[in-house]
Specification:
heterodimer, A: alpha+beta, 6-stranded antiparallel β-sheet, 14 helices, 19 strands, B: mainly alpha, about 30% helix
Chain lengths: ~525, ~60
Amino acid sequence: MLSVHRVMGSETEFGLSQPGNPGANPMRDSARVVDAYAGPRGLRSSQNFWDFATESPLADARGFFMNVADADISQLTHMPQESVEAQYLANVVTENGARYYVDHAHPEYSSPEVLTPRDLVTFDRAGDLVALASVRRLEGTEEPVNLYKNNTDSKGSSYGTHENYLVDRAVDFDDLVAGLIPFFVSRQILCGSGRVGIGREGETAGFQISSRADFFEAQVGLETTLRRPIVNTRDEPHADPAKYRRLHVIIGDATMAESATLVRFGSTSLVLGLIEAGLVPKLELDDPMQALWDVSHDLSLSTKLPLSDGTSMTALEIQNSYYSACVENAGDDADTTEVLSEWKRFLDGLATDPRSLSDSIDWIAKWVLLEGYRTRENLDWDHPKLALIDVQYHDVRPEKGLFYKLEKAGRIRRLTTDDEVERAVVSAPDGTRAYLRSLAVTRFSDSLVAASWDSLVLDAGEYGIVRLPMSEPLKGNRELLEDRLAEVHDSQALLQALGVDRLKTTNDERGAI
Amino acid sequence: MSSQEQVHRDHSAGGGEPPTEPPEAVQGQINTQNVDSILDEIDGVLESNAEEFVRNFVQKGGQ
């Protein structure tokens, strides 16, 4: 039976702006943002703190490696240390087991691994509080920085909101591609965040459903910064590569509305379950790229997308067919039931009156707001006030961010509470190795040399520097370790408690063994 | 804080209980009165110079 339960995580690259100083160096400001969070909390921030040994951004899921010399510098996650800009590559593991760092020219929060869409919502939103804490810290400086959880400046640049899903390695990658393309092309009606302007530079006046659609150019590919593909082939599982694949989804929008985030991750997890079980609807779009753009540009949701069998379907009809296949095969755990119920509510609302979902889906909340201004003040779509509203909707400050204004006014549904989100800033989620990473940062920070998604590097005193692999995302969790490690306070004892029993001292005692 | 920002600080924002009932849905045609009250509130926090703000919001591309 299908379940939404799956190891998942979100990544948010924040747009950033130094008020009144558009020429400010965004890499420097991104580093200031990360350091402003890490410093007061006593968290270490440096490129060397991240253990890059297992990163392979140029590995392609189709089975080959890209040559480093052929790669664009923006494809390398680990910039050479001698590069002038390397000094700005701040890297922090936060108390909840997330990563907060400089990615290209943006600060990025990568959530800890979670098991449920509900936890995803909570830990994704915890990242917005992390960003807010950075903004607050810099408010009192000469160069304050504001952060926006959005995806474009509508001047040609886009930056990502990524999703990660652990997938069974046995699934053929071509089956993933075939099953996901029609799903992703149509999914934007559920979880687009809306955008003023059509085209990469907003060259045509108007409003569209997705903030990212216009920046995608390929169906499948390795790149994430150029020639962006609907299905990204980066093969970097951050886990046992014989068992797992990490599907790196780059096509999503930055959702603020919690219901939209829940459906974005929950429906995708279920569809991956369909693909793993060989139960996914057999749909093939005739022209996926054109369909992606057409769906985003059609607020009436009526565009018929040609299929390769000569028939055609609307995005809503395609979504209904995925939804039906999921319902038929789904289990009845509470998390799965909630996602299916919300997904169905979205599909029904979109079919009858999309505006009825202005409390749940960002593109509709934003659209209703913009139409309100257009009507009241008789504004054309190219009026700067509408472009401002489009950006300021995503401001992370509750007193400035228009999403937060709508939410506080009771116009947006909320699933979490403030307490839950604040707790998620400092405490790891249940069920995954994020707990051990969190523990290492909070309780063993003096001996933690480096960390990554699937490793900890510890200074174990006389035993030397020990690299502890965490290649199984479901181990190292709170349930397995909390009691066992309750009385453990140094790195040697930690390693022993974890069953690392082959420690040798680094002194020249080998001859005596 | 830059001079181009209007400061309407509300430290209670984001606090409090979530709404106990789902907000009233906007049916069919936009309910102008319903929307207008929030427009007034939002007018109070919008950056004061929209044109300058939008012109200055320039990002480098990311992933």
